[in-house]
Write a structure and sequence with these properties.
By secondary structure, the chain is mainly alpha-helical. It is about 65% helix and about 5% strand. A hairpin with a 2-residue loop joins strand 1 and strand 2.
Length: about 120
């Protein structure tokens, strides 16, 4: 199979990334601390020296996760504005219309989320 020369650096980087993941997982497994089986006091959970109260598996409200996902979504939107802000003169009217379309799509998403009540903590 003949690969174009453009793909060789991509394959090298993918191999290095995969190798790093494999070495990290194996290193953590073999070099990390080994837990003993059983229900001893040493293996129990402690928080700042105070015994644990209740179950650690208490479910969180879905609002917490929804707010986190929405924050990441709209935060990433801001990251995409940076290249436009740096080069807005070079993009001209075509770039302005592209960014305007991008913003319009996110405003539609924002109003959808707002109307669905995802931003209301009282519900």
């Amino acid at each position: 199979m003949n690969l174009p020369e453009n793909y060789i650096p991509i394959l090298i980087q993918a191999g290095v990334g995969l190798g790093f993941v494999i070495v990290s997982l194996l290193g953590a497994h073999f070099l990390g601390p080994q837990q003993k089986k059983g229900n001893s006091v040493k293996n129990s959970s402690w928080e700042c020296g105070i015994p644990v109260e209740g179950n650690a598996r208490t479910p969180f409200s879905i609002k917490y996760f929804l707010t986190a996902v929405l924050f990441v979504l709209f935060d990433i939107e801001i990251v995409f504005f940076y290249p436009y802000a740096v080069n807005f003169r070079e993009f001209g009217m075509e770039g302005f219309l592209a960014v305007l379309t991008f913003v319009a799509i996110f405003f539609v998403a924002f109003f959808y989320v707002w109307k669905r009540g995802a931003l209301d903590w009282d519900k």
